[in-house]
Specification:
Enolase-like, domain 1; binds flavin-adenine dinucleotide; alpha+beta; 2 domains; 37% helix
Length: 281
């Protein structure tokens, strides 16, 4: 196996152009597992570790989170609670020190924990090649399970979104409390300034799903209150929000849970997310 470690983006692109079969390595927490289990046998691996540009994190209204930003950094540095809460649920401290946003995007698993949070934030994935940059909304970037919209010569530079305040929540359910792949996860962003609600659901469909009806329902409730978030809402509103979120799920039965259990989880988690967001307001 040839392993390279380019020092600049230009060098990285040259290598991808010369050897399109090159597999990119960030923290290795997905790729090395695949190699160790014999699912992947790349002949060329290109480490991103020296690419400073991919490690940048800017937050001046528009958040630009570089692909090499680790979960530990997301947890410590990002201002949007939904991303911090998602990062906190990932793996163990070792995984959070190594695993990156770009790796979560690159693997493109419907269970990836940052992905529903990015969907709820209406985030855009930024890709780059020698031809320039390309921006793709998160929900379009995921074309299917482990099928990112990434062309062979491209690198994921990172993700961008508008800072969305503090009324946000991320919930994840697994077969235990830590070091677990989500049976279902749910992200909620209520942005009173932009008057929008985002709901992202993971592990309940082939890709990350937006719960559009639940979003409109919650936005309608808040519109009636001129987007001043109440400390709580009538019980019937929480129940209806959960029901609408659950109706957006497209789960299957698998080793981690049944479709019926996942629908139930989405109803419970999305309802709790709205309760928490109201309480935090
Ligand atoms: C014990 C353990 C626990 C885990 N727990 C969780 C969890 O709770 N939640 C969760 O979501 N994930 C979890 N994971 C999976 C993994 O940690 C994450 O998906 C992580 O974000 C992968 O990032 P990485 O930097 O390690 O990626 P790598 O393994 O280096 O790469 C993953 C894929 O992305 C591609 N890639 C990486 N960076 C780029 C880039 N900039 N441009 C283009 N392609 C790129 C690679 O080529 C590869 O295909 C866990 C893994 C392990 C081993």
């Amino acid at each position: 196996m040839e392993v390279s470690c380019p020092g600049t983006l230009a060098e990285a692109f040259d290598e991808l152009a010369a050897f399109p079969e090159t597999v990119v390595l960030a923290g290795g927490t997905d790729l090395l597992v695949a190699i160790n289990f014999g699912r992947e046998r790349p002949e060329r691996v290109m480490s991103l570790r020296r690419l400073q540009e991919l490690g940048e994190l800017d937050q001046d209204g528009l958040v630009r989170c570089g692909a090499r930003v680790t979960y530990a950094r997301m947890l410590a540095e990002l201002s949007d609670p939904v991303m911090r809460q998602a990062a906190r649920t990932v793996g163990s401290p070792q995984i959070r020190n190594a695993g990156t946003l770009g790796g979560n995007l690159g693997t493109c698993s419907p269970a990836g924990d940052t992905l529903p949070a990015l969907a709820a934030l209406d985030a855009t994935v930024v890709l780059a090649s020698p031809a320039g940059e390309r921006r793709v909304p998160l929900t379009e970037f995921m074309r299917g399970p482990k099928r990112p919209d990434r062309r062979p010569h491209e690198l994921v530079l990172g993700a961008e979104w508008l800072t969305a305040g503090v009324t946000q929540a991320f919930l994840k359910a697994g077969t235990r409390n830590a070091m677990v792949i989500a049976v279902a996860n749910c992200a909620l962003v209520v942005d009173p300034e932009r008057r929008r609600v985002g709901v992202g659901l993971g592990s309940v469909g082939p890709v990350i799903l937006r719960a559009a009806q639940a979003e409109s329902f919650a936005a309608g409730l808040l519109e009636e209150r001129d987007w001043v978030l109440p400390a709580t809402l009538p019980e019937s509103a929480f129940v209806e929000f959960g029901r609408l979120a659950s109706s957006a799920a497209q789960p299957i039965d698998d080793v981690r849970g049944t479709a019926a259990y996942r629908r139930h989880l989405v109803a419970v988690m999305s309802r709790r997310a709205l309760e928490r967001v109201c309480a935090s307001a």
